[in-house]
């Protein structure tokens, strides 16, 4: 318990340090844009494919479930709310942690293992400002954008199967969705994606920055990034869902 509290305090202090340097990182838009590209654009393929297949599975499962109760007209409403409020932010964050989070942790960890961060310190260059802060902001900005893409592709996948294969009425599918999804539903999904983006990016840069300067240390930092990110995503998902409800 003491080690856990100490680790939590260290992460909190590191977050304060990163946030203090993040304001200055906005003065380097080129570096920030590169990190958004690395974290976001390079994750598009897995995000879009996962969103499509998840939407197709939702189309099959929800149509079968709603058909038992004679409520197939609610297919669009149910799929959109499930994706926007819950599945979209959570699945995107888990995929982001596995793809971009591990890349961030291993990249910074390798810089630590090869003494690049120590060299920056010797030259009076703050590594948090020039290395950590742009990567943290890149992940924070990229994840909500990836979540929006995941939601859109997922809804399309549900429509593709539910309407095109299972025979649901297309007009009813879209009209029910438009009538049921409110602004606060989109707001809930957006808040979750921002929180998950901050969590995944913070854990990745913290583990990479504090990795042992060995090949084994970098590997352990990458593993801890995925495990800790997954646990914190699910924990904060419950907390945020309880708060919104």
Order of helices and strands: HHHHHHHHH
Q: What is the CA-CA span between the terminal residues?
A: 31 Å
Largest sheet: none
Strand content: under 5%
The total of helices stands at 9
Rounded radius of gyration (Å)? 20 Å
Low-confidence stretches: none
User: In total, how many domains does the architecture comprise?
Assistant: 1
The assigned structural class equals: mainly alpha
Globally, the shape reads elongated
Secondary structure: helix percent: over 70%
E-strand count: 0
Overall description:
- The protein is built from nine helices and no strands.
- The chain is an all-alpha fold and 245 residues long.
- It has one domain (32-244).
Descriptive keywords:
245 residues
Helices and strands in order:
Elements: H1 2-25, H2 29-39, H3 44-68, H4 75-113, H5 116-122, H6 127-162, H7 170-180, H8 183-209, H9 215-244
Helix pairs in contact: 1-6, 2-6, 3-4, 3-6, 4-6, 4-7, 4-8, 4-9, 6-8, 8-9
Summarize, please.
This protein has 245 residues and is an all-alpha fold. The protein is built from nine helices and no strands.
């Amino acid at each position: 318990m003491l080690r856990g509290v100490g680790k939590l305090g260290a992460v909190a202090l590191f977050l304060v340090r990163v946030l203090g340097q993040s304001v200055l990182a906005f003065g380097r838009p080129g570096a920030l844009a590169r990190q958004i590209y690395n974290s976001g654009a390079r994750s598009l393929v897995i995000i879009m494919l996962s969103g499509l297949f998840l939407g197709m599975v939702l189309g099959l499962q929800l149509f079968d479930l709603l058909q038992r109760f004679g409520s197939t007209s609610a297919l669009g409403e149910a799929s959109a709310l499930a994706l926007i409020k819950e599945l979209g932010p959570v699945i995107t964050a888990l995929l982001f942690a596995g793809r971009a989070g591990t890349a961030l942790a291993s990249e910074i960890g390798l810089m630590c293992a090869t003494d690049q961060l120590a060299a920056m310190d010797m030259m009076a260059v703050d590594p948090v400002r020039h290395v950590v802060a742009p990567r943290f902001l890149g992940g924070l900005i990229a994840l909500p954008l990836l979540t929006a893409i995941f939601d859109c592709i997922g809804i399309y996948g549900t429509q593709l199967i539910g309407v095109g294969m299972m025979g649901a009425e297309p007009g009813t599918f879209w009209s029910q969705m438009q009538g049921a999804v409110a602004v606060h539903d989109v707001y809930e999904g957006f808040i979750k994606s921002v929180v998950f983006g901050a969590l995944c990016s913070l854990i990745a840069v913290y583990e990479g920055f504090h990795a042992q300067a060995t090949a084994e240390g970098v590997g352990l930092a990458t593993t801890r990034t995925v495990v800790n990110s997954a646990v914190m995503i699910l924990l904060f998902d419950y907390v945020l869902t309880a708060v919104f409800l």
